[in-house]
Amino acid sequence: MAEEKKRVLLIGKQPDIQLFAMLGQEGYEVAVLESVYTARSLSLLYRPHSIIVYLRYPKDISILEECVAMAGRVPVVAAISILAKEAFVKAVKEKAASVVILPVKPQTIRETLRSLELSEDEGQFPSARKKSLGTDYPGEKEPTQEILFRRR
Q: Are 99 and 89 in contact (CB under 8 A)?
């Protein structure tokens, strides 16, 4: 029997098309939805292995919060622009299981999703677990274009 493809739910009003194509090339089955409300009903049927939410503006932090609440034990990755302000990046890191800075290379997205799969196997999720503001994460790296942030 063929191995089941990993399913990724990509949420955002105008998700990054390059990211969508890259996930498909990496062998992931990808479903794209414009809103968390649509994702809420579909996620029960689709059963994604991970959720990537594309955030464009600081006000989108509420979308991330809704995704994390909806996800339960499914890791949520936030995809944000390299142009994002530092305060926005910090707020996103507090909520998401991982963050990738767009544009992202195929190797980076592959490593991010694989590390989340390993973390999930070790029972390190749900993404919705609470973390106090201002706390540094172990092993956190300084942000650059290709750095990913991962909650441990």
A: yes
DSSP letter for 136, please: P
Whole-model pTM: value is: 0.76
CA dihedral for 67, 77, 4, 30, sign (positive or negative): positive
**Using CA atoms, how far apart are residues 141 and 57, in angstroms rounded to an integer?**
23
End-to-end Cα spacing for the chain? 34
- CATH code: domain 7-150 is 3.40.50.2300
Beta carbons of 82 and 145 less than 8 angstroms apart: yes
What are the extents of the domains in the chain?
Answer: 7-150
- Cα–Cα distance between 34 and 14 in angstroms, integer? 7
Strand-pair partners of 9? 31, 51
Rounded Cα distance between 152 and 137, Å, is 7
pLDDT of 28 > 70? The answer is yes
* Confidence band of 111 (pLDDT split at 50, 70, 90): very high
Q: Residues 134-144, buried b or exposed e (16+ Cβ, 10 A)?
A: eeeeeeeeebe
CA dist 127 and 70 (Å) reads: 10
